[in-house]
Every structure is written in structure tokens, then in C-alpha cells.
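step 4 of 6: structure.
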Amino acid sequence: MQDQRPNIPPRARSACAVVTKPLELFRSLYDFGAMTATKPKPRKKNLSHDIRESLLALLENDAYGPGAALPSERELMAQFGVGRPAVREAMQHLQVMGLVEIRHGERAKVAEPSIGKMVEHFSGTMRHLLATSSANLEHLKTARFAFEKAMAQEAARMRTTSDLERLRRIVDAQAGAMSDMTSFLTHDREFHRALASISGNPIYTALAEAMFGWLADFHADTVILPGREQLTIDEHLEIVDAIEAKNAARAAKAMHDHLTRANVLYHRTYLASPEP
Amino acid sequence: MQDQRPNIPPRARSACAVVTKPLELFRSLYDFGAMTATKPKPRKKNLSHDIRESLLALLENDAYGPGAALPSERELMAQFGVGRPAVREAMQHLQVMGLVEIRHGERAKVAEPSIGKMVEHFSGTMRHLLATSSANLEHLKTARFAFEKAMAQEAARMRTTSDLERLRRIVDAQAGAMSDMTSFLTHDREFHRALASISGNPIYTALAEAMFGWLADFHADTVILPGREQLTIDEHLEIVDAIEAKNAARAAKAMHDHLTRANVLYHRTYLASPEP
DNA sequence: TCATCTCACTTGTCATACCAGTTTAAATGC
DNA sequence: GCATTTAAACTGGTATGACAAGTGAGATGA
């Protein structure tokens, strides 16, 4: 009596489940047809898959604002007429997707959807991908290369005076932290993030931040080499100067040189004597 | 007796679990320390979280090639000394991340990691994000705008003769499918995918494909309007011509005009009479 | 009034049973 | 002997019950 929907008579659901799937019943109530691409969907997927789609539609259509509390697992269980595992797996899936937040003892809450959070959830998979395939790592380096150059150009076009001040402040702080390697890297990361944020597009910011993190994890590219801190500072300053001058081409070249230098130095230093 | 590790005496695991967590025992056997960022990790997370990390490390370190069959849930259960739900949730999580493939009746298999598959798994979240926030949709449109321009430039620099032939073949096919809207859109999609694939970077290809799909789902940008098919073809041809001439600037401008036109037309047509 | 504590309610985990697909190998028919 | 069929033994999927553990709010005490 302690657990498991005490109101419903036992066997009632299981019996009806044979005749008509409870999910289809629920679907007919809300009827979200043709959401994405008009599929008849006769496929036999998981039960949790159906539940997840129902929840997803609920999150999109209904007035579940960010931070709102979802029904408890038991309630959903009774509502959908399925067992707890199905509800649970669906909720877990949504959590992995970054759409809800589940904490022990509390009700699940609707997470506010944001690009940044999504990319963060994404990172685990990306790291695995990079760890298993060195080719993908090269591709990512290439992509970041192009991306950062585009960011530099965009920043040169759109920068305001406050943007410029912020960049200079970061570079100054970085120059003052040359002794502390960790702090130096943090400022380096912030520099690139600030650069991307000038565009005003959160997708750019999130991507820049994520790419930096991914590559830093594998000590590839973007790595700061001991003894070369001053060079890094100088290159950052050149980038800022180009942005101040609103010279997109010069900014792109400065960023190009910056990343190329880092990459070349990396290969020269680490590939000669592999591994610490 | 039918289920649940018949060999282990009951209560044996639970008893030891109080004294020393079985996971730490397992960890000490393999000892993957300092994989990502040297965290002491005293946090109290889920049990399934620990299991997932163990499995993750297993996938990365051991010789589990793509397509290899993982141990069954019951085996893992016994191996880690935890219940089936914990193992199950961990596996589900890995499946959502796209690292394993689980089918009813078969053993779970290691999925071959690929950028494209990862982006595909990503799509559900992205769609939700776009459905709930129109601002993000605008940001995505901007990002795709810049991305496609960069792709056009890259293609103009790197295109080979066979790339060119492929592009022209696609445009020809598209011109021949002007009557069938669905087919026309398919060819349009293929055109942009082929353009991105010229770069040789699978990340670009996957992103181009994904962005097209996301935006097409919301009828925003990139939409093909009835009666304007010939214009689309002409613009595609201009892009191909620019790429043939290896003129990056011209290619970028052609792509710019192409996407701008589509966007303007969209606003003019659909915003006047909202919704079908 | 405020701090504390208890208790109801939540999710997390375990255990068991059974269902539903898949594979495999033995039994059967030719 | 060989191909087909059938059944047994896997596999994951679902349901349910019980309990542990965490959270929060209302009751209780000072």
C-alpha cells in the first residue's frame, strides 16, 4: 500500500493494455499529429519512447514554463497507464537531452532551454568521439580554425567601444597572470569567449566555448606552451587592434597567425618528445 | 530463480555495499584517473552515473571496437554488483548519447562513433529548443547564413572537377523536378550537402545537413516557395559558376543573395497571411 | 517569533516476476 | 544425410512491490 498508485484497482491497466494501448488513448486526447514530418508511425518502438514523445509534446504545447515542476513519476505513471520504468526511462532521456532537471527527493523541473546548456550536455559524447578517433580531432581543429577566423571578422565589424574595453581588460588580466598557468589558460579561454560574444549570437558563444574546452582536453591546438606566454599576449593584442580598427581582413589574419602558431609549436614541441 | 544473477547468494552484495562501494572496487581495478580534468569528484551522484562512467571508460580504453557486443545487462549487473535498473539506466544513457545500440532480444552493440550520428541524436533537443524559443530560431538562421557563406568560399577554393560535375548533376536533377515539390526540396537539400562535403570535413557536412533539416522543419529560411523554383535554380547555378571560377568572394556573394532572397520572400509571403 | 524537528512526499535503488523478441541448437521430417 | 521446423535458452522490455535516502513544509517546542 505504500507505493504504486494506490487508487487504481490491480490488474485493471494490464488487462486493458492488451486490447488498446493506453498510449494511443492518450494521444487521441491531445492529438499532436504532423509535428515534424507527417509520419504514420506504425513502427514498434519502445514504450518509453512513446511516453517520451508525449512528455515532449506536453513540454512544447502546454504552459510548462521553465522552472515549472512536472508531475511526479507516480502521477505520470497513473496518467499514462504504464509502469514506472517506462516513465522513468522517458524522464531520464529528457534529462540527458537537457530538457528537464531531476534531483533526488524533488519533483522534476522543466529546464530553461538554452543553447549553452545543450552544448554542454553534448560535450560528453563529443569527448568520447575525439578520444576514439584522431581523425575527428583533426576535423574539429580545422573547424575551429575557420570558426574563430569568422568570429574575428564578425567582431571587427560589430564591435562597440564597450566590447573593445572588455577585450583589453581580459588581455591585461591575462598578461598579469603569466606566472600562473591555470589562471593564464582561464583568461585565454575568456578572451575567445568574449570575442565570440561580440557577435551577439549565443550559438557562437556556446560553440566557441565548447570547442575550446574540447580541444583543451586533448592538449591539441590552442594549447599554451610554457615560455611562450608573452607571444600569446602579443598576438591577442594584435587581434584586438585589428578589431579596434574595424579591419575584418586584418583581424582574420591575426587570428589565423595566432592559431597557426599554436598548432605549429604544439607539433614541434610535443611530437618530438611524446607525452609528459 | 528465473531471473537476476542466480549464482550470487542473496544479500551478499547489499551487505558489502555498505562497507565499500562496489564501484570503487571496480574503479581500482582499472584505474582511469585524470581522464579529462583531474577532478577528485567527491560529489554524490546517481549510482547509474557511476556505472555509466565505468562503461564509458571501458568503451574508450578496452578493445571494444565498433560493432562489438557488450555483456548482457545481467552480466554487467553481476560484474558491477548493482541492480538491473542501475545498469539499465546507464545503458539507456549511453544509447541516447549514441555510443551503443540496443535492440530487443539482442545484445547491446558498440556503435561506431561518427559526427553525423551524433548530430542526428542531437536533433531532437535542437528541435525542442527552436520550438520553444523564436529567438533561437533567428540565431540559428544567422549562424547558418554565415556557415553557408563560409562553405561556398571553401568550396570555391578546394573544388575538384568531379566536385563540380556532381554539383551540376544535382542542379540538373533539381531543374527536372520542378513539378514535384518534395523531390525539389530533396534535391535542394542535397545541393547544400554536396557543397559542404567539398571541404572534406565531415563536421561541415553533418552541420550543413542538420541545419537545413532544423530550419526546414520550421518553414523558416531555406524554404522553397511555389512559383519561384526557376529562381532557385538560377541562383544555384550562379553559385556553381562562382565555384567553377574558383572565385571565393563571388561564391560568397552568390550564396548570400541566395539565402537573403529566400528569407525576404519568406517574410513577405508568410508573415502577411500567417499559417496555412 | 524563531529555531528545530518530525513527517509526509519525493526520487533512487533493489529484487522479482513475467512478457516479448532473437538466436541457436536439437528434434523432426524428408 | 540434409533441410526444415520447433522448442529451449538466451536477450532486452515492462510491471510491481518494497525499502532507502533525500527534500521541504508544517507542527512543535523554546
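step 5 of 6: annotate
 - The longest helix of chain A spans residues 134-158.
 - DSSP finds twelve helices and two strands in chain A.
step 6 of 6: archive
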